Amino acid sequence: MSGDGATEQAAEYVPEKVKKAEKKLEENPYDLDAWSILIREAQNQPIDKARKTYERLVAQFPSSGRFWKLYIEAEVNILFYFFLYRNCSIHYSDRKQVRNIDN
């Protein structure tokens, strides 16, 4: 068995509580306890992995402002960090260019 297979398995790991919550939602798509477990898991995931859960959540509860807010905040947070990182990188490179001009 190669190291790549182990990496793929680790990346695909789904906690048991999430599996149980998914099973509960198959039986009752309005089970708020099960959704709470999935929401907590999504909040600890990168947005590209969590987005599917948020989209399912707001599709199931389209008039829930609370759930839309969670989804929007997750999307906005990634944008905030992207722009913060980008601006820090630009400022750093600007300072580096200024130092090169001074020398």
TrEMBL record:
Main location: nucleus
Annotated compartments: Nucleus
GO MF annotation terms: mRNA binding
Key words of the record: Nucleus, Repeat
SUPFAM superfamilies per UniProt: TPR-like (SSF48452)
SMART domains hit by this protein: HAT
Family annotation (InterPro entries): HAT (IPR003107), Rna14-like (IPR045243), Suf (IPR008847), TPR-like_helical_dom_sf (IPR011990)
GO BP terms, alphabetized: mRNA 3'-end processing
Sequence ranges assigned to domain Suppressor of forked in this UniProt record: 17-77
GO CC annotations on file: nucleus
Keyword DNA-binding among UniProt keywords: no
Official protein name in the record: Cleavage stimulation factor subunit 3
Gene designation per UniProt: CSTF3
